[in-house]
Amino acid sequence: MCEMNQQAVRAAKDDLFFNSFVRKNELFILKCASETTKRYLTKNDDEWAVALGAFSQAVKAYSADRGSFSGFAKLVIRRKLIDYIRSQAKFRAETAVSLSTLDSDPEESEENATVSKAVLYQSERAADDSLKMEIECAGQDFSRYGFSFFDLTKCSPKAEKTKKACAKVIACIVSSSVLVSEMRRSRCLPIKTLEKNSGVPRKILERHRKYIIAGVEIMTGDYPFLAGYMRYVREELNR
């Protein structure tokens, strides 16, 4: 058994030696990660943490009958990084679609595509991943009402007339601390009051409940990035 294989077996049983073994192989881990991602990586990249975790798993799962430890570890790192890359790509794609449906005109397909690209860029480049953090926090707020951030893709109004009607309702709630408190307390929309105060039909209020609640939470919460996509609502509030 080669030296690296022997050390891997020992590291799986000896925590102190395990830490030393990992430090000794940091360059190996980075090299495997870089080969998988096809780009230069440092220990400041998220991929490093994924690769490091994969290497640790490889140590714990390794046995002599698996052959070369280096080959086994490289395979585990590659699989974990591919899973991570796919999950990130899915998140960015869903984010782009969800945000572009928050407040876009259905006729402006070219503009929507531009918005989606801008969202992807912001998701990747915004300082401290601010947009991603807002989405995660907003998702936690929405979960109290029984839906997720990405559910908005399916339940957002498509027609401009309906979007404006929903924006009117959102503005009506946002402008009243009493209505905001009532919505949060009951976890539902005060349909009768909103129908009377906004003039928007009950059918729209019920059909687009999730979108309206999400809009209220975004506009009253600490979500500057997300609020930037609520154009119709901002226009209604500025009337």
UniProtKB/TrEMBL annotation:
Alphabetized GO MF terms: DNA binding; sigma factor activity
A single cellular component GO annotation: cytoplasm
Domain RNA polymerase sigma-70 region: 57-90
Keywords: Cytoplasm, DNA-binding, Sigma factor, Stress response, Transcription, Transcription regulation
Major site of localization recorded for this protein: cytoplasm
Regulation: Negatively regulated by the anti-sigma-I factor RsgI.
Quaternary structure note: Interacts with RsgI.
Protein name: RNA polymerase sigma factor SigI
Protein's organism: Caproicibacter fermentans
Lineage: Bacteria, Bacillati, Bacillota, Clostridia, Eubacteriales
Name of the gene this protein is made from: sigI7
